Amino acid sequence: MRVWDAGSGALTSIENGHTDRVFAAAWSPDGSRLASGSGDDTILVGQPGSGKPAVAVTHGGAAVEDLAWSPDGSRIASGGHDATIRIWDARRPRPQTRSPGQATQSAGCH
Asked: Any idea where the domains of the chain sit in the sequence?
């Protein structure tokens, strides 16, 4: 995944870790962390350009199609192709809750 500076158009970092296409990415409210979700069933949470490895968690068996941070940056919501929404502790990514879906695809977390 490539991270670009929106103001200058400059490439700021190239982040590795996903083994499939990235479908979703969202910056934390304070702009310090980036969460990305992929077709490989993973969510990566890291600090682009810091050289620190991203923390990886598994959504639970389906492509991650949407991500959203809570306003205080303490939680991340992920929506998967399996129509579930999971809420994660963003400080040490681990699942907090799971909402089984009713539809065939995620409708978004925003």
From this structure: 2-99
CB-based contacts of 7, cutoff 8 Å, min separation 6: none
Q: Which parts of the chain fold into alpha helices (H)?
A: none
Nearest alpha-carbon partner for 15 in 29, 30, 42: 42
List, for residues 66-99, the tens digit of each pLDDT value.
Answer: 999 999 999 999 999 988 898 988 887 665 555 5
**Nearby residues of 43 by Cβ (< 8 Å), 6 or more positions away:** 35, 36, 37, 56, 57, 58, 59, 64, 67, 76, 78, 88, 93
Structure tokens at 12: 């700021």
Contact (CB, 8 A) for 79 and 73: no
Cα angle value 25/27/33 (rounded, 5°): 110
Query: The pTM is what?
Result: 0.78
